[in-house]
Design brief:
The structure holds two protein chains of two kinds. By secondary structure, chain A is an all-alpha fold. Chain A has two domains: 1-81, Rna Polymerase Sigma Factor, Chain: A, CATH 1.10.1740.10; 93-164, Winged helix-like DNA-binding domain superfamily/Winged helix DNA-binding domain (Arc Repressor Mutant, subunit A, Orthogonal Bundle), CATH 1.10.10. Chain A is built from nine helices and no strands. Chain A has helices at residues 2-15, 17-27, 31-48, 58-76, 86-89, 100-115, 118-128, 133-140, 144-162. Chain A starts with a helix and ends with a helix. Chain B is mostly helical. Chain B has one domain (30-214). Helix content of chain B is 86%, strand content 0%. Chain B has seven helices and no strands. The longest helix of chain B is centred in the C-terminal third of the chain and has 49 residues, at 166-214. The chains are: A mainly alpha, B mainly alpha.
Chain lengths: 164, 215
């Protein structure tokens, strides 16, 4: 029984591991921290897995647990250094089609997103993942209206950072 | 177009480069938590052994001479050798525990390994505390039975010792021995309680988590 549960969990996590990687990349700044967070999320997912009843998609459930872990872990370790290391995070933007200013803007935007507080960042992450407001509100446990209002505020905040 | 939306488009189009973890990589993550605790138990016990070996090198000559005069040299050598053998035996078991937890395949096996590790650590602590206490008591009984030689040696080495009345001197000597011994054993227990207790509590927590999964 437990063997089967383990197998089903690991297989599904393996398939959806990019979600966790993306969260790790947004919430950490170097490879070590990335791996630590990945492992922590894996353990939290595994602990919560018996309660996952399959009434939502595995990936949806993963977003929720993984983001919660990233947020709580982020809160716990206040000593985490907040640096913006572009080469380090290896967010390589393919810029062939764009001129330099667009690339610059994108980099600046990415840095601004990384600089957001943990909850705002979760919201933007889900937005980037093309989730609609209903999905965002379900994942983060807030109301849809609240998600919309928050997102608009964040957009405003980001716009100000980009165009001071 | 809004920059955030451009970023969104990029975010989705571009295959971000991530380390691709295999089934086994992920699986081993479920077990790693305990293996790191067991690794620390092994490392700390090695450090402890090194510490005791180091201590035996810095024992002052006067103390060595004292024990030689009291006829305890051979006894101490034998006790020391036995102690190191037992210590090495525990080290070996700790290492084996660490290896077995690292390569464990199922949650059930992991739980068994954790229980086994906890048991060995407990035995290790009992052995160290009880053997220290017994050795201490035995030595002092020996001193007590050889009071004359003790007084002779002490009055020779420490001027003025001979002038103190015999009864009083004996009382002071054994009083000091008991206090020092009690403090030492107390510190030893405190050390074990803090260091190994901390690790054991973490193992226990892991065990409970695993049990929840198991049920």
């Amino acid at each position: 029984m437990d063997k089967k549960l383990e197998h089903s969990f690991v297989t599904q996590l393996e398939e959806n591991q990019n979600i966790v990687h993306k969260i790790c990349r947004l919430y950490t700044n170097d490879a070590d921290a990335h791996n630590d967070l990945f492992q922590e999320i894996t353990i939290q997912l595994w602990k919560a897995f018996p309660k996952f009843r399959g009434d939502s998609k595995f990936s949806t459930w993963m977003y929720r647990v993984a983001l919660n872990t990233a947020i709580t872990l982020y809160r716990k370790s206040k000593r985490r250094v907040q640096t913006q290391d572009f080469e380090g995070v290896s967010f390589k933007i393919k810029a062939e089609a764009y001129d330099d200013t667009v690339e610059q803007q994108l980099k600046l935007m990415y840095s601004a997103v990384k600089d957001l507080n943990d909850i705002d960042k979760a919201l933007v992450f889900l937005y980037l993942e093309d989730k609609n407001y209903r999905e965002i509100s379900e994942t983060l446990g807030i109301t849809e209206v609240n998600a919309r209002v928050k997102m608009n505020r964040i957009k405003e905040k980001l716009r100000k950072i980009l165009n001071p | 177009m809004d920059v955030l939306d451009t970023l969104k488009k990029q975010w989705q189009e571009r295959e971000q480069q991530f380390p691709k973890l295999s089934y086994d990589d992920i699986y081993s993550m479920l077990l790693k938590k305990s293996s790191s605790v067991v690794k620390w138990i092994f490392i700390i016990s090695v450090c402890e052994l090194l510490f005791w070996i180091l201590i035996s090198f810095v024992v002052p000559d006067s103390s060595r001479e004292f024990n030689e005069q009291m006829g305890l040299k051979t006894a101490f050598t034998i006790i020391g050798v036995i102690n190191y053998i037992i210590f090495a035996f525990f080290l070996f078991i700790f290492y084996k525990n660490y290896r077995s937890i690292k390569v464990t395949a199922t949650v059930k096996q992991l739980m068994e390994s954790i229980l086994k590790t906890r048991k060995t650590v407990n035995y290790f602590v009992y052995y160290n505390v009880i053997s220290t206490a017994l050795l201490f008591i035995a030595i002092n009984i020996y001193y007590f039975l050889h009071k004359e030689e003790l007084t002779k040696f002490l009055s020779k080495s420490y001027e003025g010792y001979g002038s103190i009345p015999q009864d009083k001197a004996t009382m002071v000597f054994f009083g000091a021995q008991i206090i020092v011994g009690a403090v030492f054993i107390g510190l030893l227990i405190l050390f074990y309680y803090v260091v190994y207790g901390f690790l054991l509590r973490r193992l226990k927590r892991n065990y409970r988590e695993l049990k929840k999964i198991e049920v």
